[in-house]
Amino acid sequence: MHAAAEAILTVANARMAGAIRLVSIERGHDPRRFAYMPFGGGGALHVCAMMREVGVATGIVPRYPGVTSALGCVIADMRHDAVQTINKPLSDLDVADVQRRIDELAASCQQRLDSSGVRFDAVREVVALDMLYAGQTHTLPVVLADAGQAPLTAASIRAAFEAAYTAAFGRVLDGIAIRVMNLRYARIGVRPKFDLKVLAPEGQGSTAPLGTQRVFHQGRWHDAVRYARLELPVAARIDGPAILEQADTTVWLEPGFHAEVDAHGNLLVRPS
Hints:
Largest sheet: 5 strands, mixed
Number of domains: 2
Strand content: 25-35%
């Protein structure tokens, strides 16, 4: 039974590793230059397996992996986006109408920010146009950096498009009409910055084991030492095989790996 369970886990790990390769190696990124950060209640059970499978040298287990998304919702900037279709050649574009649309979207998105009841340190906006050369299929997002400060003109829109096109493709195309497909607007409420060090363990803590647990891993049984993860002090080092327990997740530290607690309370997992 335990061999069958491990086989199922091996398949699950392989599928997750394949997804990581899809967004790293297959896009030209070397996983060895990145850290692997699991999140969610079950992610930390797979941290060592993913590091082995993909070749990542460091794993970062957050202080509270099971509530990472919830924490992000609380501390992240609040953003409201809106889009309107224009679909006109740049030569026929009514720039005054575009400016009017921007002003209306700004007011609408600001009303949404105001209704949230959240305090912001600042409010930013991003104005962009989806543009392309006539006959092309895919649009290019063109950010209008000075949309809120300087008057919008056809010339400034053309200059922004040509700069974005050059940055993306290395050159512009002469003699081909430019088309404006969509107006995109984002209004961002910037929240006060959150110092993650407030999550760090306080005091001396404890590295005393809670006991041991038999774990079947890679074809044989191991006596894994159990620890209360949140009681481990800063700079504490735990060697695998070990199980680190907390209310929102469980960390499985495989043989051949160790973990250290950093100044923010994260676990830094590395091969021994």
